[in-house]
Amino acid sequence: MQTLYIDRKDTQIEVDRERILVHSTHLPRPLSIAFQYLSSIVISAKTILTSHLLLACASRGIPVIILDPRSCEHHAQYIPPSSGIVHRKIKQFEILDQDERRLGYAKQLIYAQSIQQFKLLHFWHKQQYFTDQEFEQLILRFKNIMQLIPQSHRMDELRGLEGAAAKTVFYAIQRIAPPWCKFTGRNRRPPLDPINVLLSLSYSLIYAECTRALYAHALDPMLGFYHEPVHGRHSLACDLTERIRTDIEKWVLCLVLNDILQIKHFSRSE
Q: What are phi and psi of 172, to 5 degrees?
């Protein structure tokens, strides 16, 4: 069974007996899909649908989730009791309610992230951005952090190690960033240099995409297992973003080191 994603505007969906028909100017002919092959419908563009479609999906246990393509804050969903998604939500609540289990998932997340960071340092060394001595010092520091992550007994301990690993990566970025970037470490609200601007923007975009993905899979983005649930923050989306941060950092450095972005592309206002 598959999820039907509607991401083209001015699409129309209607019911034809045991099938749904998708009409779009982007399709040469209507797309016909049998209900029996659908596990859910996710809509992220301006779409015309009727109550008949919603009732047809409800009677077959097919969830319908509508996302706002311009904001991760707004969504609508109908989850039929027979869809089975309720069990997914229960599992999410159980993890949040069991400290030991939650810590276990958090340690897996941060250890996986540290492996990515470790590989990133190796990549930069192969590009000859560090001397051998600098690289050995960075790797030694990182190995010590990675050894301590599985031994963490509290969430604040784990966050301290995650912060130390991030600080090591930002120190490495400081060593290899072009002088015009004036990067001296991570700062935000507002970011004060081109690299921090790129990092903040990229993190925000990924955070929004993670939020939409969680809504699309009927998970509650507010309930994270590593980031504490806080009003106004999608903590589980923050958790997912951690797995992508290293790719963002590698990409941002690639942009400035290869002159894809230069000083002329940035301006500063007081």
A: -65, -40
What domains sit in the chain, N to C, each tagged with a CATH number?
Answer: 2-83 (3.100.10.20), 89-265 (1.20.120.920)
Q: pLDDT of 129-160, one tens digit each?
A: 888 888 898 899 989 999 999 999 999 999 99
pTM: 0.72
pLDDT digits over 80-96, tens only? 665 567 777 888 888 88
- Tokens describing residue 181: 């970037």
User: How far is it, in rounded angstroms, from Cα 150 to Cα 168?
Assistant: 19
Phi and psi of 38, rounded to 5°?
A: -100, 130
CA dihedral 251, 180, 129, 260 (to 10 degrees): 40
Cβ pair 157, 177 in contact under 8 A:
no
Strands 47-48 and 64-67: unpaired
DSSP 229: P
Is residue 57 within 8 Å of residue 41, measured between CB atoms? yes
